[in-house]
Write a structure and sequence with these properties.
700 residues; alpha+beta; Rossmann fold; Immunoglobulin-like; seven-stranded parallel β-sheet; five-stranded antiparallel β-sheet; 17 helices; globular
């Protein structure tokens, strides 16, 4: 191109950017060099391209990237209104921003910097960074848990499948790996609810404690924190860099919050990591005064005004410093102390309050207030290696003779996060058993949002381990959230994951929902509105973890919108709750060729393992003689009742045949191969004039 003399200097100053094919004076180039990252100015430096697995813990959580979430709003701030208006020309209104647009997770980059890497470029859409630095080891970088792959920037970008390109946009998180925290959740029956996709979605939990250093904790950085309030100083709950607080001021609150909200497998997974939270700091660890009851009452009023469904406060009061008047046990009647009365007031307003029994031993009346409150759901502690009460767990009855505690959960050696010392540690106390059950209650409320606080309480108590023989050491016994859900299901009907499973398989998109209900007699239908249609198309969903299959051709390369309706057959409807709709209002986006996994859903529930490079044929392949039953995976453009599969050995000898029926879309047809020995075989599949041959192997 040619450039006018008048514009010569300006054009040269931006030669690299505008591509003007002229030579510029060295002086001008040196003036423009600072416009580029200094690391990119070197021609001899070694540059490494690092692809990351995700956009940080928040991106892996259900609801982690949706309007209003911190990550979504951070991403929104990176785009101008004009950019969004332009996108609106080609994208659905509810999909102007995706997780692909989100910034690269900065703490991952901090880890790279500690290893000597200098960040040269951030590539949001590829979720990658380009780094340089002396003595960087490719192998060391590859071993980092958040790194997907590493390559020299001198290499071209290797081609990947569509699924690999898009998976980062929609995958929430895989089946949880609870690590050392497995027992504390399993003892309360919580993992089975995670396994059907219930993680606390739609529930707001209020936590009151000493403060919360959640922004600095790996397991809590992705927590959905809606607001914080320091009642003592009437500002943020964070105590970082505050000289007038003790160094460990927020240690206890951080531990408590992590037991519910953490998500950092395999180090720690909280009981309701998909819930949202308000945090109130009411406790000053420098002293123990009556004034802290006032702080507690004010904090509870603030939480209630913010709309929390559940409150948990691992705090209790009985004995105070010598300067203050202590509380005699005769007043532990649920009607006297300021905190007990405040808990009852909150309960009357619909807040389910979880309170620790205390840590003053099982011998005689050792409760602290507000564990004496009538409406409080009081939690004691059991041992980590048995089903007995921990010796420190406080016992009742209350001063007026009521059974307390109400329920028990693990309170010894509970894995939690702490800002002091090691990031994860085992801690003990009813302070840790209480948030476990508060999180369990959030899962129940997520499954049945219309449940009232006393109905949740009733379901937990009536399914506890000694529900018919309560005492003042164990109360009604060890809570089991799974059993409580089963009881609630008998009254409220169908339980379903609030999120849908979707993934591409062969030439179709499979869409599924995990259901848990008293009867298998359900009519489940997927309703899909394609971009080119004004009406919804119905797709029946099968049994088990229920799936519908939508051929790609129906999307015409456009996203669609969907909803699911599950309705019990008339003869098995339960207590006026015959149906369920997902979502409860509106529709969900469905993008073809993308994968979305509800967080917590166990992949072994799928009728066909989530595929990466699955092809038509027998699946899995090789076939284990231990199972002998495999799936014939085929994609059909039209249905047929005359399909046939014949099996031959490696010499071409016919061995057996089976008549089959196929439906439009992807078919996973079970085949019984129990009569075959180990060896190599061929399956010939024929339908509607089409013939396909598949090789497979049976191994010992």
């Amino acid at each position: 191109m040619s450039c006018s003399n008048a514009a010569y200097n300006l054009i040269c100053a931006f030669t690299i950017l505008c591509g003007c094919g002229i030579m510029c004076p060295r002086s001008l180039l040196s003036q423009t060099a600072p416009m580029l990252p200094s690391t990119l100015q070197s021609t001899s430096a070694t540059f490494i391209r690092i692809f990351l697995r995700d956009k940080g813990p928040e991106s892996l959580r259900p609801g982690g990237f949706q309007v209003g979430s911190p990550l979504y709003e951070q991403t929104r701030a990176l785009h101008t209104e004009r950019a969004l208006q332009r996108r609106a020309k080609v994208l659905p209104e509810n999909a102007l921003l995706s997780i692909q647009d989100a910034p690269v997770f900065e703490p991952y980059l901090d880890t790279l910097r500690k290893r000597g890497a200098v960040i040269a470029l951030r590539l949001r859409w590829r979720n990658a960074v380009v780094v340089t630095g002396a003595n960087l080891s490719f192998e060391e970088l590859r071993r980092l848990p958040f790194v997907e792959r590493v390559q020299s920037a001198r290499e071209r970008l290797k081609p990947t499948s569509v699924q690999e390109n898009t998976q980062i946009q929609t995958t929430n998180c895989p089946t949880p790996n609870y690590g050392n925290a497995a027992r504390q959740l399993a003892l309360s029956g919580i993992p089975p609810l995670h396994a059907v996709g219930l993680t606390g979605q739609g529930v707001v939990i209020g936590v009151m404690d000493t403060g919360f250093r959640w922004k600095e904790q790996t397991s809590l950085k992705g927590a959905s924190i809606l607001g914080e309030y320091d009642v003592i100083r009437q500002d943020t709950t964070s105590t970082a860099n505050r000289s007038d607080d003790r160094r460990d001021q927020d240690s206890h609150g951080t531990q408590v919050l992590s037991v519910i909200a953490a998500y950092d497998p395999p180090n720690l997974i909280g009981a309701a990591f998909g819930a949202q939270f308000y945090l109130a700091k009411t406790e000053d660890t420098r002293y123990e005064r009556n004034l802290e009851q006032d702080n507690y009452a004010a904090g509870l009023e603030w939480l209630e005004s913010r709309g929390v469904d559940i409150m948990t406060a691992s705090l209790g009061y009985a004995q105070f410093d010598s300067t203050d008047e202590s509380m005699p046990y005769s007043e532990m009647n649920g009607k006297t102390s300021l905190v007990a009365r405040s808990v009852n007031d909150a309960a009357r307003r619909g807040v389910l309050c979880f309170i620790p029994a205390g840590n003053d031993s099982t011998k005689g009346r050792t409760l602290s207030t507000p564990a004496d409150a009538d409406s409080a759901l009081v939690v004691g502690a059991i041992l980590a290696d048995s089903l007995g009460a921990a010796k420190f767990s406080s016992s009742g009855p209350t001063a007026d003779g009521r059974v307390k505690p109400d329920l028990m959960a693990q309170g010894q050696r509970v894995i939690s996060a702490s800002p002091i010392g090691q990031e994860y540690q085992a801690a003990s106390g009813t302070s840790l058993s209480t948030p476990i059950l508060a999180g369990g209650a959030a899962l129940l409320l997520s499954a049945f949002p219309t449940m009232k606080p006393w109905e949740i309480r009733d379901a937990l108590i009536k399914t506890a381990s000694q529900a018919t023989k309560p005492d003042n050491v164990m109360g009604y016994g060890i809570a089991n959230v799974e059993d409580a859900l089963t009881r609630a299901t008998a009254q409220y009907g169908v339980v379903a994951s609030p999120e849908l499973l979707s993934y591409p398989l062969l030439e179709a998109q499979r869409v599924g929902v995990a259901l848990k209900n008293p009867s298998a007699s359900l009519d489940v239908t997927l309703f899909v509105k394609f971009a080119q249609s004004q009406d919804f198309t119905r797709f029946p969903i099968g049994d088990g973890t229920r799936f519908a299959t939508i051929p790609f051709v129906q999307f015409q390369r456009n996203p669609a919108n969907l909803s699911v309706a599950a309705e019990a057959f008339a003869e098995v409807r339960v207590n006026g709750a015959p149906h369920l709709r997902i979502p409860r209002m509106g529709t969900l986006p469905l993008v073809p060729r993308q994968t979305s996994l509800p967080c917590g859903l166990s992949l072994n529930r799928l009728p066909v393992e989530l595929p990466e490079k699955v092809q038509e044929g027998l699946f899995p392949n090789p076939v284990s003689r231990a199972t002998r039953v495999v799936n014939l995976l085929v994609s059909a453009q039209e249905p047929s009742t005359e399909a046939e599969c014949k099996i031959f050995n490696s010499f071409g000898q016919f061995l057996l045949s089976e008549k089959l029926s196929v439906n439009t879309g992807v078919n996973a047809i079970p085949l019984d191969l129990s009569s075959l020995a180990s060896g190599v075989y061929f399956a010939r599949f024929r339908y509607n004039g089409r013939v396909s041959m598949y090789k497979f192997m049976i191994v010992p």
